[in-house]
Write a structure and sequence with these properties.
The chain crosses the membrane at residues 6-25. This is ATP-dependent helicase/nuclease subunit A. Keywords: Membrane, Transmembrane, Transmembrane helix. The chain starts with a helix and ends with a helix. The protein is an all-alpha fold. The chain has one helix at residues 2-64. Helices cover 97% and strands 0% of the residues.
Length: 65
């Protein structure tokens, strides 16, 4: 009977530990994805501004020439 409870504790600990590990890694992955998405949005915004500035400045130089 003692061996049964020992095995039960090992199996239960393995299952609970695996579930907890999966949950923690899932949360970490979601936070990482959110961080990367915000960085991508920021870079896209900067690129749009850069393109607008280049197109606007090239038009001004053509008019002034």
């Amino acid at each position: 009977m003692v061996a049964y409870w020992g095995h039960f504790r090992i199996v239960l600990g393995t299952l609970v530990g695996g579930a907890l590990g999966f949950y923690v890694m899932h949360k970490a992955e979601l936070q990482y994805q959110a961080k990367i998405r915000s960085e991508i949005a920021k870079l896209e915004q900067e690129e749009r501004l850069r393109e607008q500035n280049q197109s606007g400045s090239s038009g001004e130089t053509l008019i002034s020439d």
